[in-house]
């Protein structure tokens, strides 16, 4: 509790750049800070980005500019603080006990514009930097608000815009839950309200999730992921389609009727999955199928060699009828079973 209280009103401490920076394990897409900025700093905006480091010694200092995001700091798997104050933040955690420790920073909220900046983990003279944690498995999650964990902390479906932001917690979404069970590193490229060809209620025409997918920061057209990105997952999970079909077509949209929309969805989704497989040789691909588009996903899976995973019967008790914590655990259960039963 002492650390949680610290997080609510952090003061900028004495600069720690003379201390030793920890080597990093980075989960998620990040962009090195622009030239002239702090060396070893990274900007990040996709949901669920995390940074990990290992060290020995009694204390660790975390340096970050939160932007408008909420971030969580953990040591040895125990959450020590949530950083909710906007701007430059430095948090020192001490009295951690002897021996080796793992420190981790998790992005909880969703950035549809802007980004946050990680500036480093720093160990003092009494400690020692150790090689970063590493895992043998990797999973990539691509999707919409269900993958983001939109408003998942809410006990009510009625939420204001600020409540949606504050109650979103990607660490409680099915992706991180599943990755934790399988001891896997992960990346998440998800954006609330986006579909394969059509976004929720027809907004932001021409910018569905596949158009945002190449970006390092979702709200910025540049920079983009390098063509030779060395990060390769073993498993890819895609959940897209709810926003394509959850609202009726409006006059002036690109599709004459629902049949035309579904045809475009299937053809575009096939091409998107084929592109994912080409860039991720050997990765197994799983496609989440919801109630209203299960047949469409089944066809895409059949044409691409992916596996469709039907997920239904959610209570949708979080903000704006989104998956609850229980729903997220159920989705992780079904995906885990599908992954473990696949060849």
Topology:
Elements: H1 2-8, E1 20-21, E2 25-27, E3 31-32, E4 42-44, E5 50-56, E6 60-65, E7 71-75, E8 78-83, E9 88-93, E10 100-107, E11 116-123, E12 128-130, E13 137-143, H2 145-148, H3 161-167, H4 174-181, E14 184-190, H5 209-212, E15 235-239, H6 242-245, H7 258-279, E16 284-289, H8 294-304, E17 307-310, H9 325-341
Parallel strand pairs: 13-14, 13-15, 15-16, 16-17
Antiparallel strand pairs: 1-11, 2-5, 3-4, 4-11, 5-10, 5-12, 6-9, 6-11, 7-8, 7-10
Helix pairs in contact: 4-9, 7-8
Account of the 3D structure:
This protein is α+β, with helices and mostly antiparallel strands and 343 residues long. The protein has two domains: 2-130, Galactose-binding domain-like (Jelly Rolls), CATH 2.60.120; 137-341, Rossmann fold, CATH 3.40.50.1110. 24% of the residues lie in helices and 26% in strands. It contains nine helices and 17 strands. The chain has helices at residues 2-8, 145-148, 161-167, 174-181, 209-212, 242-245, 258-279, 294-304, 325-341; strands at 20-21, 25-27, 31-32, 42-44, 50-56, 60-65, 71-75, 78-83, 88-93, 100-107, 116-123, 128-130, 137-143, 184-190, 235-239, 284-289, 307-310. Strands 1, 3, 4, 6, 9 and 11 form a six-stranded antiparallel sheet that branches. Strands 2, 5, 7, 8, 10 and 12 form a six-stranded antiparallel sheet that branches. A five-stranded parallel sheet has the order 14-13-15-16-17, sandwiched between helices. The longest helix is centred in the C-terminal third of the chain and has 22 residues, at 258-279. The N and C termini lie far apart (46 Å). Residues 1-17 have low confidence and may be disordered.
């Amino acid at each position: 509790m002492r650390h949680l209280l610290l997080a609510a009103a952090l003061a900028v401490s004495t600069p720690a750049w003379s201390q030793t920076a920890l080597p990093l394990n980075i989960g998620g897409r990040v962009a090195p800070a622009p030239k002239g900025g702090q060396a070893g700093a990274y900007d990040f905006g996709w949901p669920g980005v995390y940074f990990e480091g290992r060290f020995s010694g009694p204390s660790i200092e975390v340096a970050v500019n939160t932007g408008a995001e909420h971030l969580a700091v953990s040591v040895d798997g125990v959450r020590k603080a949530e950083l909710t104050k906007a701007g430059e933040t430095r948090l020192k955690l001490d009295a951690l006990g002897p021996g080796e420790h793992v420190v981790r920073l998790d992005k909880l909220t969703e950035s549809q514009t802007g980004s946050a900046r990680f500036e480093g983990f720093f160990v003092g003279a009494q400690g020692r930097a150790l090689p970063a944690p590493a895992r043998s498995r990797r999973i990539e999650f691509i999707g919409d608000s269900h993958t983001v964990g939109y408003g998942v902390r809410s006990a009510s479906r009625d939420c204001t815009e600020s409540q949606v932001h504050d109650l979103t917690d990607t660490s409680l979404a099915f992706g991180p839950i599943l990755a934790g069970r399988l001891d896997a590193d992960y990346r998440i490229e998800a954006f609330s309200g986006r579909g394969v060809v059509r976004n929720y209620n027809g907004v932001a025409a021409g910018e569905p999730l596949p158009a945002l997918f190449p970006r390092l920061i979702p709200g910025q057209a540049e920079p983009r992921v390098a063509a030779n990105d060395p990060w390769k997952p073993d498993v890819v999970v895609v959940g897209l389609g709810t926003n394509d079909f959850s609202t009726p077509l409006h006059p002036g949209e690109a599709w004459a009727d629902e049949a035309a929309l579904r045809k475009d969805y299937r053809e575009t989704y096939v091409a998107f999955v084929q592109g994912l497989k080409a860039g991720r040789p050997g990765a197994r691909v799983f496609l989440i199928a919801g109630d209203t588009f299960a047949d469409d996903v089944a066809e895409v899976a059949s044409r691409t060699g992916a596996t469709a995973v039907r997920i239904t019967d959610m209570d949708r008790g979080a903000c704006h009828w989104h998956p609850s914590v229980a729903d997220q655990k159920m989705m992780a259960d079904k995906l885990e079973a599908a992954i473990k039963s696949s060849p």
